[in-house]
Structure formats: structure tokens, C-alpha cells
């Protein structure tokens, strides 16, 4: 059974049609690349799945049931998490504090509510171990590499037992070594049975970790192909319009 299904999803902003009858499905533990030029509709699609926008028409189902996702909080309760390009991390806090930001573990001492720092650090360390990341719970985010920052953002999604993670340009502006680290993190999410939608302009990354690639152009899905049945050249042609559809 598909984890996420979109059927003829459309999104209009006044007279502007940002998405035009987009349909696709994603299986548990599947990594799918989402590619397209600026203005292709990728961001609008991600915002519908994550609850920021509601579709103007069409149906969304998650886990085999109709899903009406009216907010990011509702998406999170379903098991849908988003890692945005800016990561939304607090540089002045530790890795552990970022993971639990807004979801801190506390205990009551009379009228006082105190943070359970030791418990949060221990759980953060467990999450980094699961991801096979060398990031440490008490490391300050402002001193981290791009790859380590991604590890913190991904660990935060694991705190809520995510079933689907949307990743927006996770390898943009980081070194080659850090790219390999982030792609390794994505593979470990798949190994844990978590589905990933990888939004990326980097063709080598999509072909390295994805099983399928969905290509958007001008709000329309123009391809949905197994990676084994396409090539970077074909995907580039689809993105630019040199090839209309595949």
C-alpha cells in the first residue's frame, strides 16, 4: 500500500495556476527525487504535502486514508516532516537543544518545571548513533559543518517517528565530503523504512540515492520514472522543455 498518494492535485493563486492535476504515489522506505526549474511547482507541491497550502482541487491520502492537512502541525501528527534548506536551527544552542526545541523534556519540582538535560542529551546521542553520525549532543550548532547541521535537522524529524521526510536542497552549498555524509544519512532513513522526497537541483545526488525521479515543469508533472530507466541527459531535457514529456 502506498504511503502517500496525490490524485489530480491542483493549486490556483487567483488567476495563476501553480499546479495542474498532479498525481503520484510514494511507498514506505522509498526515496524519490523531485526536480524542476525555478517556478516549476516543486515548492507549492511540498507546501501542500506539509500542510502550509491546501489544494484547490484533487485528493491527498496518507497511509491509505484521505488526508486533509490544514497545518504543519497536522502533517507532523500524521508523520510528515520537512527539512527546509535553511534548516531553521538556533546557532547559539547545542545539537540536543535544537532537536528538542519546543518539545523539551521536563520534570516537576514543586511549582518549578525543570529541563531534563541529561535525558535529552541521551536521546539525542541515540538518534545520532542510529544515523551513524559523528555529531555529538552537546556540540554547539554554530561550530558545526554543513553535514553536521543536516544531521541535527534530520535527527529532529526522528524524534517524532516520521514516516515521510521532505528534504529541500539538503546538499546545497556544502563540501563534497559533507555531501557524501548527507547522502549517507538519507540512505539510513530509507533503511529505517522512512520515505524521503528529495528536492534537489543536483543531478548526481538524485541519481546516487533515489529510486525514482519526478520532474515538474510549469506546474505540470512531465515525468515519473525509475532512475534505472532514465539518464541525467533525459532529466535535463525534461526540466528545460527540450523534451516535452517522458
Automatic annotation (TrEMBL):
Keywords: ATP-binding, Nucleotide-binding, Sugar transport, Transport
SMART domains listed in its UniProt record: AAA
GO molecular function terms listed in the Swiss-Prot or TrEMBL record: ATP binding; ATP hydrolysis activity
InterPro entries: AAA+_ATPase, ABC_carbohydrate_import_ATPase, ABC_transporter-like_ATP-bd, P-loop_NTPase
Keyword ATP-binding listed: yes
Highest taxon of the lineage: Bacteria
ABC transporter domain mapped to chain residues: 4-243
Pfam families: ABC_tran
CDD domains: ABC_Carb_Monos_I (cd03216)
PANTHER family in the cross-refs: CARBOHYDRATE TRANSPORT ATP-BINDING PROTEIN MG119-RELATED, SUGAR ABC TRANSPORTER ATP-BINDING PROTEIN
Protein name per UniProt: Simple sugar transport system ATP-binding protein
Lineage: Bacteria, Pseudomonadati, Pseudomonadota, Alphaproteobacteria, Hyphomicrobiales
